[in-house]
């Protein structure tokens, strides 16, 4: 039987979309967390970091409940936006965004905080706005942190299993990503297929890390702490 | 007129210090703020720039209110028209010398002016170099011309000479003086060491015990300041000083001249700069008085 490549493509698509969206969300959020102190900051940081310690099935369970049309959020999204997040690809994206958020935020926040405080002020004294300072002064100086965040997010989403299974299930072509396909193959005792999926995921993950390490070393002359 | 009246509680070395500063100066003046480390010099400079918000007070620059605690006015840093040279320079590691200047200049696009700045500071052959590839002195110069690239009305410098050797310090002082003469910006310079800045300013502000003490030199020629000679050698007194003596001898030292002045039975050795020394000859009668806390030397008769 020919190998079904769709789970692999779906995994790559999910990882890519999640990474790009998290770059857009993570940069302003990490910038805010790095330079602002406010009441309740620890609570926000704890919420962002929760996926690091929470069993994925717990996060998946709560998301499943929240996205269900029988509950407020799920009902609201379906009623007003015609969007159903349970057992759908958009649901996987939302779940992955939450699940991988700390993997993007932590390196970026650390990167911003490692910059000399005066760098930002120097740009302001030159008449530059906060946005221009962020994009032209701060971000170019934390490129290794940005690459670290992107690689971690991509690789983490690629290997996601618990959250995906809980909110997405195992629908072929919609939510059946590579990690689910491996589990499914093993369940049906198709070890040959499981081997191929696993080997491909292993090679993809290793290649991403290898390219990133070499690229960072060559470009920034420093290794990135993953 | 430039009028600054501010109050700020500062947290220095886990202690709370209250800084109260009141100073007045004129546009185009060169003002040195000095004091011991932890006296709040940098904080005062950053409050003028808008980087730190004072607790109370008012900052008025040539009729424009930058800060007024009573009606919550606080002009953003970007709109204050300042140039700021940070103690750690805060150069942008990813930009070359030229990129620094183009970024700083923004939409003004005056390349002839940038060329002038580069030529004056001898950075014209290093335009494609990044800060890491420059020497300490070159980095200092880059920080100064970056701050001047958009022709600010006010230049604020935080310890610009502290990391430089004496020769380099002297060069950069000359360049700074030339730039100030050409552009007539108001200069606020912070230094922990008044010696470093002697002869540079026409107004000195000492921060001590949380308060600012201002001394104005109405005329620079009244100053006996010599670069490199400690001001402790010069008599500062609130009491009026009035001595008459005769110049016995004038001889050069490394950074100026010494006047041997016979006062009654004692000989006073007074360090002066070259300009002041040129006014006297051996045998002249000399009158020593004070004005605005500065020593004034006059030929008598």
Question: Describe it for me?
Answer:
The complex is a heterodimer of chains A (226) and B (301). The relative contact order of chain A is 0.15. Chain A is globular. Chain A has helices at 6-35, 41-53, 56-67, 72-81, 89-114, 117-125, 130-138, 143-158, 162-168, 178-187, 191-220. Chain A contains eleven helices and no strands. Helices cover 21% and strands 36% of the residues of chain B. Chain B has six helices and 16 strands. A six-stranded mixed sheet of chain B has the order 7-8-9-3-10-11, sandwiched between helices. In chain B, a hairpin with a 2-residue loop joins β13 (256-263) and β14. Chain A binds chain B through residues 116, 118-119, 121-129, 136-137, 140-141, and chain B through 46, 49, 51, 76-80, 82-84, 86, 88, 90-94, 103-104, 106, 146-147, 149-150.
Question: Main attributes?
Answer:
heterodimer; A: 226 residues; mainly alpha; 11 helices; globular; B: 301 residues; alpha+beta; six-stranded mixed β-sheet; five-stranded antiparallel β-sheet
